[in-house]
Write the structure tokens for this entry.
Amino acid sequence: MQYRRHLGVASLAFLAACAGAGDAAGPRAPTGPTAPVTPAEKGDWSRAAEWTTYQANYRHTGFVDATLDTSAFREKWVATPLLATAYYQPTLGPDRLYLAADLNYSRLLSINPADGSVVWSVNFGTLGGINQATYDNGALYIASGGAQDTFLWALNASDGSRRFKSPFESQFEHWNAPVVAGNTVVQAGGMYGGIYGFDAATGGRSFFLSGLQSIAPWTPAVAEGRAYATGYGGGVRAIAPADGGTVFDIQDERLSKSLSTPVLGDRNDLLSVSLWGLIAVDLTTRTVSWARGAPGEYVGMPVVGNGVVYAATATRIDAVRESDGSILWSWAPSPRYAFPMRMVLTDNVLFVTAASNTFIGTVETSCATRAIDLASHAVFWSYPMCGEMVVGAKGVLYIAQRDKVAAIGLR
């Protein structure tokens, strides 16, 4: 499997950095607190929605609307569902955790969240590679890529049985999870970039739009019956998911070299990390409302919630006011930790995961997931694993590092 050819540069660097961390001694107990923090609040998970796709939801905010009891964190289990592999960002359904493995395998695993055991596994065979799955209304939608191996698959989430397998075109890209808008599954693809639409029930193709710059990995964002993509003609395009029709285009050179999946914020805005910096687009006026940073300064995926955008540079995370782009505060890890960093946001805690830039030979010697109190801006908890992470509506943080998965109870 041509794994290095498939993944984007940022994903490769992050997986490489995490490759050896924690493997020798195994997982350790969580540590903390490491600094004074705001007194623990009573947890409130009544508003939390499940993490069903890339960056939690079809807006890709990376935000879980929950207030965490900061004294309740505890390790539930650590499991190795499949040896010698690496997982994409996990996906959650009502009662299962789903892991797509694409190093040495092309498999989708259904995991029991109670103990980490495998409920079922689908082996996709010798494909060019698979990607993260999306859970929607009892179905799992997952794309495989690799020239003649490019398909959109729909599986029954209960047992992994196939609903449909629909071909489309690509080279050897990887994408973030597809999105569902109404009765349409919207999937990035095309030999030279583009977007496909498929009927969510039958898999029939409803449209294909070419002309999008070929960036990987990415996926459109969806809200209010529209799908959004960056890169079309050097800007943003809003499309009607039913037929792919253009609703409007926004042209601005600063949006022409997008490096991230678009994020739809809380102010009818679109947030994007491009070669020009962190960009906010007002979808009402259809203009760039603000831009922050020097070219190439920001990296990875921003997260947004409660009017604040959190974006990473090579040395720090900035908390940016969503309305005007001003910096509210910043946080920087120890210099021995490297970027890019993954982030998950809740109402009162920002989770950050990063590997160190300290190696013995080719083995990375330290990595951690940290919890930052949003009131004090202090790290109050850490856990010695790093990688892709998600927070589920039932109050569990899952961290996938190479072939290990940890479940941390948050309530």
